Amino acid sequence: MAAAVDSLPVRKAAPRVRLRKFLIWLATFGALLAIWQLYVNRADSILDLPTPLSTVKAAYEMTVDGELGEALASSFAVLAAGAIPAIIVGVLMGLVIGSVRQLDVAFGPYIFAFFATPFPALIPLFLLIFGVGFVGKVAIVFTLVWIAVLLQTIAGVKAVDPRYLEVGRSLGSTGIRAMFEIRLPAALSFIVAGVRIAVGRALVGGVIAEFDTALTGLGALIFRHSQRFRLSEALVPAVILAITGIVLTMLLRRLEGRLEVWKQTD
Amino acid sequence: MTAWTNAPAEPAQKADGEPRPPAPRRPVASVRGFLNNKWVLRGGAAVFVLAVWQYFLSEGRVDPTFAAPPTKVIASIPEVVTSELYLGALFSTLKLFFVGYAIAAVLGIVIGLLVARVKVLDLALTPYINGLYAAPLPALVPIITAILGYFLAAKLLIVVLLGIFPILINAHQGAKDADRTLLEVARSFKASELRTWGDVIIPGALPYLLVGLRLGAARALIGTVVAELYTSPEGLGYLILRYGSSFNMDAMLVVVLTLTTMGLLLSGGILLLDRRFAKWKVAD
Fold this sequence. Notes:
heterodimer, A: mainly alpha, MetI-like fold, globular, B: mainly alpha, 2 domains
């Protein structure tokens, strides 16, 4: 069975090749923006369709009147408050469940079933129980991150080379000590992969929960401006979210690669 | 990405065809063996979770408006799933999912293979494809509905946008990993591009395509639910909102569990297909 790939390979190449690639990228980027701008200028639409220029202008205006900063602070507070505890809890639970075979056999299928649930279906439920404010959104982000990190940590702990554990045992590292000294470091690249998967889900979960409340955060900005057909203003927070997702994914993927290399040279 | 694995079934015979000596019989009734039985453990875990859930709700620790103890949820399953409302909603959700997923599959495979084979496209588009895959695309839903309206076109676009990228990326990778030797043989025999695709690239990419189709199905299902909740409410998404607004938590959970089942069946079904083809490849 082929391994799942979730990005096209971007190999490190010689500087000259990289420069050429960058130039090609730049040219494509410019061309795409130009086509977009010209297409909308020519298009005969009753809507005020966004263009690159109008989006940049909207971004500037929204920054000046403070609307954007406020929404950013609100959204990122939710993400941090939900994701950080979720990563800690997910890793600790994963270490325990992954180390004890019976727990893994018992709870594994349910954890996977929860992960396989299309998560937007849970959002109305969470908002009903925890309210549409800060707490409700944090609860959603927490749950989405927790389940992805848990699943990956269990997989990582189970993939630990049993020889390491044997060596550890003979040197007196057993039980909880082995969990932190051997299993956790060996599972790190899996855990980072879990965080990467979780980031994507948490951004989506957070933003669509903000559509529901339409009060605070980037999602609410997108929703409110779209409702009034101010599409350039609506596009600005969406682009910020996209950049956040792309940058975090890239950084985590790089970290993952580092950890895997560390494992190989080990 | 299954978190647990079933132990592979012991082969009845050794590779050289010599029958195995019968395994020593374990005492069936031993307590230890019983506690290590897969189904006993799983059943125990289910009972444990349900008991904790029931306990917290029955003691009035949670606002009774939102209380949906497992006994009530289970009891409400037959009534909910036989109602005309539920069956209609299920049908409409399945329809949206399968139409959107089919479009995503065809477009994803074609674009993925094409981008892999045409160097200019590969260099120009790869960063955007990776970027769009990492971006939280449901953030665009209000903008999509403002432009396309609240009905079928907007819904399909959401499902396709979410489902297409894993399929595209895996198809691309599959074509890139096509056997170089076979490609060279094809070239030296002056095989046409079309025959090269049919005989080398697509068969080689098949296992990747199946992985992509599995990941894409999970995301397309997420897209389906987003489309049903945040455009004009329809299908199972509409049912969730409707039961939620009347605080009918039991029925709401039955709908959520339906979607869980769909998620599991989809990934399980494609995984089976995957095993079949993987075997076929090894035997080849």
